[in-house]
Amino acid sequence: MAGCVNNASSEEVNKELEKNINRLQDSVLKMEEKIDAQTATIKKLEERIASNEKTSSLISDSYAKKTDLTYYDELISQTMKSETAILHDAKIKGDQLLLRITYAEKVDDDQAPNGFNLNQFEDATLSIDKKKPIYLLETPSKLVRVEWKEVMNESGLIELFKNDGEVVFIREIYIP
Predict the structure, then answer these.
(1) Tens digits of per-residue pLDDT, 94-127?
(2) Most CB atoms within 10 A, among 38, 64, 121, 161?
(3) Which residues sit opposite 145 in a β-bridge?
């Protein structure tokens, strides 16, 4: 009988051990699932951090470029001769863009609604080839380079930048 009691006791111990092993295996599986989920979360967060760093870098670069553009705008304005003109209309004729303009001079006037008056003095038609860039206002503070067809429907105040008397580029001037 003593052997039977030991056997029964061994079986009970084995069953208890199996239960404990099964519980431990279940716990390990659950922990592995949690680790997998946390690893996936960490990966997503790392991707988000990388994306934020890239965005931050782009914003910094964009700010630097805007600062540089302001600098270049001042530099161009101070080193190149420019003339102000009123653009009446534009037509494409062959490989030329014909701009019908009136040359004008901006005169500061605190009493004027926009802070200046225009003294108009000469009508002209300019012939511009495709190599000359034209920049129009997309917003009051953003100039974008445009194709000729986009100039066709425009009118307003423009600045003609010249080098040795030849127009090298044109930009629209914001009128408040």
Answers:
(1) 899 999 999 999 888 888 888 888 889 999 999 9
(2) 161
(3) 135
In sequence order, the β-bridge partners of residue 101 are 87, 124
Q: Mean pLDDT, to the nearest integer, of 138-160?
A: 85
Q: How far is Cα 22 from Cα 32, in angstroms, rounded to an integer? A: 15
Residue 160 near residue 168 (C-beta atoms within 8 A): no
CA-to-CA separations, 88 to 151, 154, 157, 158, in angstroms, rounded: 11, 8, 9, 10
Give the residue from 91, 95, 106 showing the smallest Cα distance to 158.
106
Residue 59: CB atoms within 10 Å: 10
**What's the pTM?**
0.58
The pLDDT score that the predictor gives to residue 7 is: 55
The number of angstroms, rounded, from the C-alpha of 32 to the middle of its chain's C-alpha atoms is 43
Residue 67 amino acid letter: T
